[in-house]
Amino acid sequence: MLKDVLILHRGLTPGQSRPNSFEAIRDKYESAFECDVFMLADGALAIVHNKDMGLSQEQIEAMTTGVFYSLHVKDRETQTEGSPAPLFREYLALALDRGNKLALEIKGSSPQMARKTARRIVEETRGLDPKLLQSSISLHSFSVEALEEAQDAMREHGVQMKRALFWPSAPARALEMSISATVLSYLEGEYSSTEIPQWTEAGIKLAHQKGFDIIDLQEGVITPDLVRKAHSYGIEVNAWVVNNADRAKVLENMSVDHIITDTLG
């Protein structure tokens, strides 16, 4: 499988089990990473997934930078602590210095927090070379509102990054998070758990209507027809999370653009 197709989910690989960590990117060059971005109480951005820390989203967002620095990323296999959890600026500088690309997942305990986080990311990255921004950083979220806020902020600051809509695998899954539950308000009609192809196609159409560049689809729902539909709109398709090499090959043969993985890197 081509290296350029893979995006390392939270930086995980068979030999590296600390998610969203400095260890994940220290020895990686010209690779692509998916990482989670929260905004802390003092406005700083942090690279962390709350579940990896055994915390709620609200607990992460209530932390100041000083408190956040006390968190250390644990190895998923051994549970040993590694380096401190990264702040966004530090992680970004280290990643780009090594020629890596970043798929930044905008997190938030609510649509409002996701929007604030999206705007803050644009503000933190606007000083980078515009060509580097376009080629090396993409903004991903389950929140339509966050991606729209990111676009507004990018227009204000004269920068551009690709935007990607993470699409829940089923309507019931959308309702599990406050930032994705709002997608139902953008759709016409009702969808049930037995209408997954139609539901997924609705997500592709929504991404097209909103001018998003990428749609991130749960790997099990992807079909050749759905990939062709997305590509007909000029939308890239990313599959998540794929940890089976045979399935990854099938998806690659469907012309999926990128594969987000824990284990194939």
UniProtKB/TrEMBL annotation:
It holds the Pfam family GDPD. Residues 20-263 form the GP-PDE domain. GO terms for biological process: lipid metabolic process. Signal peptide: none annotated. GO terms for molecular function: phosphoric diester hydrolase activity. SUPFAM superfamilies: PLC-like phosphodiesterases. PANTHER family: GLYCEROPHOSPHODIESTER PHOSPHODIESTERASE (PTHR46211:SF14), GLYCEROPHOSPHORYL DIESTER PHOSPHODIESTERASE (PTHR46211). This is GP-PDE domain-containing protein.
